[in-house]
Design brief:
Radius of gyration: 21 Å
Helix content: 40-55%
Number of helices: 10
Strand order of the largest sheet: 9-8-7-10-11
Distance between the termini: 48 Å
Shape: globular
Structural class: alpha/beta
CATH topology of the largest domain: Aldehyde Dehydrogenase, Chain A, domain 1
CATH superfamily of the largest domain: Aldehyde Dehydrogenase, Chain A, domain 1
Largest sheet: 5 strands, parallel
CATH architecture of the largest domain: 3-Layer(aba) Sandwich
Number of strands: 13
Order of helices and strands: EEEEHHHHEEEHEHEHEHEEHEH
Oligomer: single chain
Length: about 290
């Protein structure tokens, strides 16, 4: 797949850009291939396509949306080996970690496709009812990082689509390839405009977070960038989901075998070269097992 001619996905179509950048293999620092950089006009086209697709997608039966999201998992599984190799090449993961991420992406699509947001009757008095209904927002903007590029994209795409929203998603400029390819494959399942994938740099992220027609931002990345996303989204009071850096503890209780858990605690800190938000940053160890 590294020789694939990568393109943006807008309104169900492959769209090329005059502006490109090189994807780099982090293990060798050798160029992999060129990928497109979306312009502001590309973003306007993608948002317009998502807006046009939204009414029909929101009106589509939940069971049909669920089926299509599950089929996205089937697409990843059908191309699993190619996705694994591409992820290793562009992100630098070892084989086992890449298998875990791609397999997890398949699983996430299928499991999210089983979920639904049922109406809740808050109170009923005679003929009067108060009912809570969960309705789609509209166009969702997704921004993902480089540490788990496909999995974190799917984490945003699957729930948004099942809930009846449409999406414009931007992968990290360090790891755009798996997401660009997935966006292209997804068009064999989804109606045009439901999922649009735009690769680009930091300025594209700012344009997305500021765009008045985008009703929610789902962002995973650093705390510093999360603050900027929140500032940009304030212009039209966008809803926000921010998955930022954690300060996660491991708590070791006195009834454990220290030698048995040492390996697990190590990998809780150092898996993925420690580049994940829930990496263990500190340990609280009971005095009875501290020396062990």
């Amino acid at each position: 797949m590294t020789q694939h001619n990568y393109a943006l996905t807008i309104n169900g179509q492959r769209v090329h850009s005059a502006d490109t950048a090189q994807a780099i293999n982090p293990a060798t620092e050798a160029p992999i291939c060129d990928y497109p950089l979306a312009t502001r006009e590309h973003l306007e086209q993608a948002v317009s396509a998502a807006k046009r697709a939204f009414p029909a997608w929101a009106a589509t039966a939940l069971s049909e949306r669920q089926q299509m999201v599950s089929q996205l998992g089937d697409l990843i599984e059908a191309n699993q080996e190619a996705f694994i190799n591409l992820l290793i090449t562009e992100q630098g993961k070892g084989r086992a970690a890449a298998e875990w991420e791609i397999g997890g992406s398949v699983y996430w699509c299928r499991e999210i496709a089983k979920q639904s947001l049922e109406e809740e009757v808050v109170s009923r008095q005679g003929d009067d009812e108060i009912v809570t209904r969960y309705t789609p927002i509209g166009v969702i903007g997704g921004i993902t990082p480089w540490n788990f590029p496909l999995l974190l994209a799917v984490w945003k795409i699957a729930p948004a689509l099942v809930a009846g929203n449409t999406m414009v998603l931007k992968p990290s400029p360090y790891t755009p390839l798996c997401t660009l390819w997935f966006g292209e494959l997804a068009q064999t399942v989804l109606p045009p405009g439901v999922l649009n994938i735009l690769s680009g740099g930091n300025e594209l992220g700012q344009w997305i977070t500021e765009h008045p027609a985008i009703g929610k931002i789902a962002f995973t990345g650093s705390t510093a960038t999360g603050r900027k996303v929140m500032q940009s989204a304030a212009g039209n009071l966008k809803r926000l989901t921010l998955e930022l850096g954690g300060n996660d503890p491991a708590i070791v209780l006195p009834d454990v075998d220290a030698k048995a858990i040492a390996k697990d605690l190590f990998w809780a800190s150092f898996a993925n070269s420690s580049q994940f938000c829930v990496a263990c940053k500190r340990m609280y160890v009971h005095e009875d097992v501290y020396d062990d």
